[in-house]
Amino acid sequence: MSWIDERLAERQALVERNRLLDDHAVQVYAAVWKEMMTFVEEAKTKGFSNLLTNGSVQNRRLILAVPGNDKTLSVTMTDKRIIRASCSGKESRFELDVCDGGIVCLRHDGEQVTEQEAARRILDPFLFPDLPPANTSAALIEKW
């Protein structure tokens, strides 16, 4: 096999990978939002009764309604490869990837995460901005 054959095979593998990502992107995005809504419903029963949803399928929003100081969390899918969550100038990115077994998965800072874990990482700083991130080590919490 020549290097040209190898490069043609690489091109075909890339086309297949991109097709797989494109075919499953909306499904993964919807699954993350569904997990978020499960956590939102729990939060509503535990004192966060002022949480509202808004937006569109492409740009979903969660609003923490506080008189005179509403806070909005936007969750969008950009280019079918990235889920972006932003609030108060802070942003989290979750990249779609093809993981073991040819399954489309999410990565956050290079680490594979489930839809449920992505939902938690998106909601934690929105609901608890005064606390260090839940996945922060004890040493970093002391510095916080």
Tally of structural domains: 1
How are helices and strands ordered from N to C? HEEEEEEEHH
Average pLDDT number: 90
Low-confidence stretches: 137-144
Distance between the termini: 57 Å
Strand content: 25-35%
What is the CATH topology classification name? Metal Transport, Frataxin, Chain A
Radius of gyration: 18 Å
Largest sheet at a glance?
7 strands, antiparallel
Strand order of the largest sheet: 1-2-3-4-5-6-7
Helix content: 40-55%
Q: If classified by CATH, what would the architecture be?
A: 2-Layer Sandwich
Keyword list:
144 residues; 7-stranded antiparallel sheet; 3 helices; elongated; disordered C terminus
Tell me the layout of helices and strands:
Layout: H1 3-44, E1 51-55, E2 59-64, E3 71-78, E4 82-87, E5 90-99, E6 103-108, E7 111-113, H2 115-127, H3 138-143
Antiparallel strand pairs: 1-2, 2-3, 3-4, 4-5, 5-6, 6-7
Task: Describe the structure in brief.
With 144 residues, the protein is α+β, with helices and mostly antiparallel strands. It is built from three helices and seven strands; from the N terminus they run H-E-E-E-E-E-E-E-H-H.
Tell me about this structure.
The chain is of the alpha+beta class and 144 residues long. It has one domain: Metal Transport, Frataxin, Chain A, CATH 3.30.920. Helix content is 42%, strand content 31%. It has 3 helices and 7 strands. The chain has a 7-stranded antiparallel beta sheet, with helices on one face. Strand 3 and strand 4 form a beta hairpin. Helix 1 crosses helix 2. The chain is elongated, with a radius of gyration of 18 Å. The chain starts with a helix and ends with a helix.
